[in-house]
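As agreed, record minuted below.
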Amino acid sequence: MLGAIIGDIVGSRFEFNNHRYKEFELFSKECQATDDSIMTLAVAKAIMIATSSKNPCLHGYDRDYYALVESMVVKYMQEIGRKYPNCGYGGMFSRWVFSEEPQPYHSFGNGAAMRISPVGFVATTEDAAIRLSEAVTGVTHNHDEGIKGAEAVAVAIYLARRGFTKGEIRDKIKQNYYELDFRINDIRATYTFNETCQDTVPQTIEAFLESTSFEDAIRTAISLGGDSDTLAAITGSMAEAYYGVPKNIKEKALTYLDRDLRAIYDQWQEFIGDESTSKKFRVLI
């Protein structure tokens, strides 16, 4: 999850001022946590509350648990989201956040994928990543492409956490989600701003797969241009799972979170423990 937050913060100042090179100062005073970080933390909060309220270890892994996850995602994306009305929401999502009767709106926007990383860090099987991803995503982005984009990222994170190689992750994505028939260097000059899953998620996966380190993954994503904060957030979520996050980058990024957001992050770290494969998640099969 932290990888998504870091990517969002680093990319925030480039969203409407693209920088198509990998050389730049990683953090600056213009950086900030945007909706990508805030909604990622909201999803994490929802998963924590749902699991604490209906412990799957005691009550079983069933539809009721997923229904509770869905309701908690709605609750906390609205509750937390309303505290940050100017953090960069898209028009439809903003209306959803402030709606008294929020309903999914058939979206395939890349917001589905930028907030999904907590799922990949909690799931203990690929099927769990898929099913939990759908529960989290469908409350807003219930278009097939929205579901697919979030699922692809959650599965990639799950595989990376489990020690799968980049070649194995690439094969899984190509088999089930996207062709990945391009290289970042080949598309950088012509890639334009895009907010759909179809035209951002494959690019983020490729940026991660081509990277040589966590930091290089972030830099590669931003160098592509486009929706820089979201591209870097999605790429960063996968890179964290594969490489981990350098201590100096982690410490600097956390200074951009206010007290409330930092509290959720700290709660999440305690919740998942040192390993996201803790026995308390063995029910997610």
Notes: The domain at 2-13+33-281 is CATH 1.10.4080.10 (ADP-ribosylglycohydrolase fold). The mean pLDDT is 93. The chain has one domain: 2-13+33-281.
